[in-house]
Every structure is written in C-alpha cells, then in structure tokens.
Write a structure and sequence with these properties.
Chain A: GO terms for molecular function: magnesium ion binding; oxidoreductase activity. Chain A: This is Pyruvate dehydrogenase E1 component beta subunit. Chain A: Keywords: Oxidoreductase, Pyruvate, Thiamine pyrophosphate. Chain A: Pfam families: Transket_pyr, Transketolase_C. The complex is a heterodimer. Chain A contains 14 helices and twelve strands. By secondary structure, chain A is an alpha/beta fold. Chain A has two domains: about 180 residues, 3-Layer(aba) Sandwich (Rossmann fold); about 130 residues, Rossmann fold (3-Layer(aba) Sandwich). In chain A, strands 2-1-3-4-6-5-10 form a seven-stranded mixed β-sheet, sandwiched between helices. In chain A, helix 10 links the parallel strand 8 and strand 9. In chain A, helix 1 runs parallel beside helix 8, helix 3 runs parallel beside helix 5 and helix 10 crosses helix 14. By secondary structure, chain B is α/β, with parallel strands linked by helices. Chain B is about 45% helix and about 10% strand. Chain B contains 13 helices and seven strands. In chain B, strands 1-2-3-7-6 form a five-stranded parallel β-sheet, sandwiched between helices. Chain B has a two-stranded antiparallel sheet with strand order 4-5. The longest helix of chain B is centred in the last third of the chain and has 23 residues. Chain B is globular. Classes of the chains: A alpha/beta, B alpha/beta. Chains A and B meet through helix 3, helix 5 and helix 6 of A and helix 5 and helix 6 of B. Bound molecules: thiamine diphosphate (TPP). The site of thiamine diphosphate has 16 residues of chain B, from strand 2 and strand 4.
C-alpha cells in the first residue's frame, strides 16, 4: 500500500489516506467521490485509483449540490460513499443536501433507509492567506443540525475516526483542520486502531482545571498546560467527536476540577463552546464561571496575516482564559 | 388512474375536514403521467417523487391502505407516521421518497441510477418533478452528472403550467425539453393527458436507459384540476382562470380512456376502486398512532444518546 503513496504526505493527511485505503479494501461498497480525488489533490485520496480503480474513485464536475445528493441516493440503495469537499465553506452550498435530505431520511421514512455517507472536509479553518471564503470551521452548524461530526486532532485519531465514520450507518462529517493537515512536524504513527465515535480522549490529567480543546487547539492546550505546569494542574480533554459529545467524560473531569475553559475554532455566537459551557453550567459542579476562547461573533477571516491571526486564537488567549477561570 | 383519482378525492375531503393534518397537494388531473410512466417499470426500478407524490407512489404499486395510514400519521403507514404526505416512501418497492424540497429528488435518483448501472443491472430510475423544479440548480447539476456518466435515469417533468401561482412562462426561460437537450439528454414532449402516449414514449426512453444509452428527459404537458394545496381549496383561494380549468377538465385523462371502454367495464373498475379505497380508509382509521415518547425514534440508525430539550 505504502508504495502507492509515492508523494510524501504530511503525517495527518497520511493517516486519513491510510484510513481510506483500509476501508476501501475492507468493504467493496465504499467509494470516494469529489473534485480532483483521482489525482488526490488534497493528498487524502492519493493512491486510491491504482489500488481500487476509477469505478470506485469518481471525479465529479464542480457540482457540490448534485454530488452530495448523489451520495445520498447511492447510500440509500446500498453503497457507502465518502465525499470529499475541497473547502470547508462548500458545506454552505450543500446544507440542504446534507441537513435537509441525507440526515432526515432515516427518521422521515420510519427507519426504512439509512444514509451511510461520510463527508470528508479536507482543510477546515484558517489557511493563513486564504481569506474570507476558505477559512471557516463550520462544524458547530452540522452539530446543531444533528449530523455526527468529528474533528480529529492527532493522526491516530484521524485514522481511527475516519474508519469509524465510513462504517457508521448514518451521515458523518469529518473535519480535518488545515493547520494539522499542513503541519510538517506531525508524524503518522502508523497505528491501526479504529476509534469509536462519541468517545473523548483525556490527553493530560490534572486536578485544578479542565480545558476542552478541539482540533488544532488540542496542541495549543497541551502547550499552555505544560507552560503553566508549575502553577496549575490542567486536564486537557479532546472530545474528538463534536456530536454526539462525550458529556459523561466531561462531567467526570469538571466535577473533579470544578473549573472549565473551552477553546475551539468556532465563531462565538451559538458555537460549540457555547454548548459546552451551557451544559456545564446546567449539570456540572462548577466552582467559578467557565470561560471560552473562540473566534469572535460571526467572524469572517480577513486576508492580511496579522488580521487573520488576530481572529484565530492561540496560546496567549488560552493562558489568559485559564487565569481568569482560576480567580 | 381511477385508483389515484378516487384516493386523491377521498384525501382531499379528509384534508379539508382536518383529518389529514398538514393537508395534501392533490394530483387530480395528472394521473396519466404517473400511470403512463410507471406502467413500464418493474418492482426493482426506482422512483423519486415530489410534494405532489401520491400518484407516483400508487402508480409504482404501493398499497393504498398503507399510504393512507401514513397520511393519518399511524404506525401502519410506510413511514410509521414519521413522513406523511410529502415524504411517503416504500423503499422495498423502489420508492425513494416523495420530497418536500422542489427539485431535490433528481440528484438523489442520479446516485441510485449510478449504483444500478454499477451493479450491471438493467434497472432504471425515474425522477418526477414539476415545471417549477426546472429552475432549481441542483436539478440542472443532476442532468449534467447523469449525462456525462451516461446513467440510466429518466427525468420526468410534469409541466402543469404552474408553480403554485407562478405561470410557467414567467418561471422558465426557453423550453424545458430544449434545455435538457442542451445537457445532451434525449428529450421528448408528450400530451400528459393521454396515458397511452405517455406510456409509449416513456417506454421508448426507459428502454434506452435499460440499454445503457444514457439518461433521457420526458416533458408531459398536463394540468392539476385543483389548487396547489388543499389549504387553498379549503380557503377557496384560486389563482387560475376558471375557463382555463374547465377547458382542461374536458380533457380529463380518465374520462377519455373510459370512452374507449364499455360502460360495464367502467362500472366494474369504479366499483373495484371504490371498494379498495373504502378498505384503505377503514384500515387507516383503525391503525394505531405512534407513542409520543418515540418522537425521535429512527433519527439515527443505532443508539445515540439524544439529550432532551429540557434537562431538570
Ligand atoms: C426549493 C423549494 N422552494 C420552494 C418551495 C415551496 N413550494 C412547494 S411546491 C412549490 C411549487 C412547485 O411547482 P412545480 O415544481 O411546478 O410542481 P407542482 O406544484 O406544479 O406540481 C413551491 C414553490 C419548496 N418546497 N422547495
């Protein structure tokens, strides 16, 4: 398999790529569809054509709405499509096809059909210099609508969660953050574990404060936790699956630490952070007001690098939020 | 056709009476299209349907008792009361669902057609839609996909001259069939009030699809005798010229066909259909309602812990 991946892929992309190879080999009903997937323009689908042929790797015209519902139709009659979207914002074009069609069929038909489609969002979040229409992280929208939504933060999760997504009987969206896909220093461990949906991962244990971090911000959180290690013991939780969310694991942590900070790449208003904090306020034992670190309300990422970076959070803001939550 | 007519007339009464909640989009007047097209299909072929879908569903062979049971929101309905009029689906019969979003079925049907072809079967997909759907981008994208991949799908445009109140000439630039030809589809236009010409032309196009000659497009000129939705009927609101309606009613496909049969044969069909509909009404009225605590059943295929809206 590896000799087919002649291009040297960054670790995170390579993990996604391995997962697709593995699922296609395991199940003939899996096929990949999207724009430039045969050449593997994003890297995620590299090497699939020589292995599985053009009948199972379909290049589409630039028709997101029709190929998204095409996936629904194919899934309804027995196939497992993996649809790759080149840009996260393209999800806005196909909200109707995902949220209003694919997601609703199971309930509306009284369980007569399932729609096992995977939406592979190759590259969400800022790409530094790609500006307004290529820098969003719209996973909160899909979670709000009830689409199973994953944001893996490590190559082993990217591998294991994508495999679970493809096997899942319902529509599942997998957001691969650009920052991670492009990171040259992230290595793929070559692990083969399948990661089940809905299980959070505790990446660092601590008794004083819980940080929930999503996607590329898991790295931010680990870095900050380390830098504050002499002052405070931070527990870092990566939900991995944004929806359904592992509330139990979070509750266990927050009930232990009593303090909570959330960092993610959503816009603030109605973003994922809002849901996590609301739930914690309703259900968990908090000692102090929780804090969230997010993009501003309704943010549109500007082009100039300094402006882009101003809106996308990092270690500094998280450190401040942690200090505030410790007051 | 008579079965659809009688079914729809009964539904219209039940909708106006409030027994069918949400109302219906009556298909009355357009029966020759569904019946003509579906007379060429087997149980293995697929259809996608529209908000005005009862005719297509029945013509594909669905049990009227279970369709009515669905409209009454009961567990005996195809969708166990979760879908209603605009989502009626019988997957075993290849009915991939009526659809409440105009133009949505075309791309879904195209995906199913790809699978049928990929399996090496000669099964085909029929996607029904109205003239209004011809302005939906996703449908035009689906024509393109179906054509470049040479998929066995017949797109059937039921041009009943109106999209709710919008006249076709105000909504559709150019001509539906010529548009489809622009995508490389073989396209025909037929008199949608004449079941035999619909059946024979659809038959030819479906045969082409079965022989792997690519997708096709059939425009049927037709007319709905009632208003867009039963609510309008209920309110007595009409958008169309009564003379226009009267002139189309003279071309009623069921009356025309009836003239070719003996009085005795017509009486026999009428009797038979009435019995079936009475039976469907009885069946549906006696069917069990779903349990409110199961309101989100079937949302996901497996166990997903959906949190309630209120956590106390
Ligand atoms: C995309 C979309 N826009 C608007 C509506 C509201 N709507 C429902 S039916 C209809 C008219 C559809 O006209 P046509 O496609 O010609 O079908 P007909 O009702 O004539 O059978 C409209 C506007 C909708 N359901 N979907």
């Amino acid at each position: 398999m590896s000799d087919l991946q002649s291009v040297s892929l960054p670790g995170y992309v390579r993990a996604l790529n391995r997962a697709l190879h593995a699922e296609m080999a395991a199940d003939d009903s899996v096929f990949v569809i999207g724009e430039d997937v045969r050449v593997g323009a994003s890297g995620v689908t590299a090497g699939l054509v020589p292995q599985f042929g053009t009948e199972r790797v379909l290049d589409t015209p630039l028709s997101e709405q029709s190929f998204t519902s095409f996936g629904t139709g194919a899934a309804m009659v027995g196939r497992r499509p993996v649809i790759e979207f080149q840009i996260s914002s393209l999800l806005y074009l196909v909200f109707e096809q995902i949220v209003n069609q694919a997601h609703k069929f199971s309930l509306m038909t009284g369980g007569q059909v399932h729609v096992p489609v995977t939406y592979m969002v190759s590259g969400s979040g800022s790409r530094c210099g790609w500006a307004g229409q290529h820098s969003d992280s719209p996973y909160s929208l899909l979670a709000h609508a009830g689409i199973k939504t994953l944001v893996p933060s490590r190559p082993e999760d990217a591998y294991g969660l994508l495999r679970s997504a493809v096997r899942d009987p319902d529509p599942v969206a997998v957001f691969a953050p650009s920052a991670l896909m492009e990171a040259a220093d992230v290595a793929d461990s070559g692990e083969e574990e399948v990661v089940p949906l809905g299980e959070a991962n505790v990446l660092r244990e601590g008794d004083d404060l819980t940080v929930v971090a999503v996607g590329q911000h898991v790295g931010t959180a680990l870095e900050v936790a380390e830098s504050l290690a002499d002052q405070v013991e931070v527990e870092v939780i990566d939900p991995r699956t944004v929806y359904p969310f592992d509330w139990q694991r979070l509750g266990k942590s927050v009930n232990k630490t009593g303090r909570l900070v959330v960092i993610d790449d959503s816009n603030r208003m109605c973003g994922l952070g809002a849901e996590i904090i609301a739930t914690a306020a309703e259900e968990f034992d908090l000692l102090a007001p929780p804090k969230r670190v997010s993009r501003p309300d309704g943010a549109v990422i500007p082009y100039a690098l300094a402006l882009d970076q101003e809106l996308v959070s990092g270690t500094e803001r998280l450190t401040k939020a942690i200090r505030a939550a410790l007051m | 056709m008579k079965l659809i007519r009688e079914f729809e007339e009964r539904c219209l009464e039940m909708a106006i009476a409030g027994e069918i909640i949400g109302g219906i989009h009556p298909y009355i007047g357009q029966e020759a299209v569904a019946v003509g097209v579906c007379s060429n299909l087997t149980e293995r072929d697929f259809i996608t349907s529209t908000h005005r879908g009862h005719g297509h569903v029945l013509a594909k062979g669905a049990d009227p008792r279970r369709l009515l049971a669905e409209l009454l929101g009961t567990l005996e309905g195809f969708n166990k009361g979760r879908g209603g009029s605009m989502h009626a689906a019988d997957i075993e019969l290849g009915i991939l669902g009526a659809n409440g979003i105009v133009g949505a079925g075309g791309a879904i049907g195209t995906g199913a057609a790809w699978v049928a072809k990929d399996r090496g079967s000669s099964d085909v997909v029929i996607s029904f839609f109205g003239d209004g759907a011809m302005s939906q981008g996703v449908l035009l994208e689906a024509f393109n996909l179906a054509a470049i991949w040479s998929l066995p799908v017949l797109f059937v445009c039921e041009n009943n001259m109106y999209a709710t109140s919008l006249k076709v000439e105000s909504g559709l630039a150019g001509n539906a069939a010529r548009r489809a030809e622009g995508f490389g589809l073989v396209a025909r236009t037929v008199d949608g009030m004449d079941v035999e010409s619909v059946a024979s032309t659809a038959g030819e196009l479906i045969e082409r699809c079965r022989e792997n000659k690519g997708p096709a497009f059939l425009e049927c000129s037709t007319y709905r005798f009632f208003e867009h939705h039963s609510i309008l009927e209920q309110l007595g609101v009409g958008f169309r010229d009564p003379d226009e309606i009267a002139s189309w009613r003279k071309r009623d496909p069921i009356l025309s066909l009836g003239k070719q049969l003996s009085d005795a044969a017509v009486a026999e069909i009428d009797e038979d259909v009435k019995g079936k509909i009475d039976e469907a009404v009885d069946f549906a009225r006696n069917a069990a309602p779903p349990d409110p605590k199961d309101a989100l059943m079937y949302l996901y295929s497996g166990e997903v812990a959906v949190r309630p809206g209120v956590i106390l």
